[in-house]
Amino acid sequence: TAATGTLAAIWTSGSMPTDSAWRVEAQIIGRSATETCTYVIRGLFSNRAGVVAQHGTTSTDYSEETAAACNFDLAISGQTVVLKVRDDAATSFSWSAVVDVFQIGGT
Hints:
Elements: E1 8-12, E2 20-31, E3 36-48, E4 51-65, E5 71-77, E6 80-86, E7 94-105
Antiparallel strand pairs: 1-6, 2-3, 2-7, 3-4, 5-6
């Protein structure tokens, strides 16, 4: 992707079912010609009567990077969960992620 230096979405879930809870786990890796970073993260989300919320903050199980400017976040966008990454504004990065969603409840 083009270097932006801002958080940009690399994955978006489908709509979260009403009256459900999700644990979202992501394994992320990014690289440029000169930098590399990797993260394992997780977050807890719920949809109660159509209102989606994140509980607590996104936790980091593993983090290793050679580019201090890189970062990540799990966020809400309407009825979806979005995985966002930030790269170094001076370098173009390629990103890849494996995202697992564990669900309970919902219709």
